[in-house]
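May I ask for whichever protein you like with its backbone structure tokens?
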Amino acid sequence: MNLEPEPFGTARLDALPLRVAYADEMAAVLGDPALHTYTGGAPETADGLRARYRRQTAGSPDPGVRWWNWVLRVRDEGRLAGYVQATVDVPGAEAEIAWVVGTRWQGRGYASEAAAGLVAHLLGTATGSGSGPVRTVLAHIHPDHDASAAVAGAAGLVPT
């Protein structure tokens, strides 16, 4: 299994493996405090994101876990609009996923498209191989976050 994530695409988005160099642009994308309503915390500065991206791209200290992170580029705009991520438990063939789309890009279906693309990528169904690195995908959704629950449903995930 690859230690680093492979890029993938959807109809309108390119999911690019995370790089520290994306921190400045992503700080603007993620700068709205409303993005933290259900998760807590506050927007990070570009310096804070650089530090976080360094940790994330260095990978998990656990050799059985992969931290795979992608930024989402809207192909027609050539601009970053959010991210998707997967924490992959290699021995368990399970991935916990998450997604965030910046406020400016919400309401256009990008989160649903990105999450569905991520699930397909992880399961290997995007290429038809059916031999992806995981067999089980899950996401933790705040019970009051209807939009995120809808995204999870669009990605084929069901409440448990």
About this structure: DSSP finds four helices and six strands in the chain.
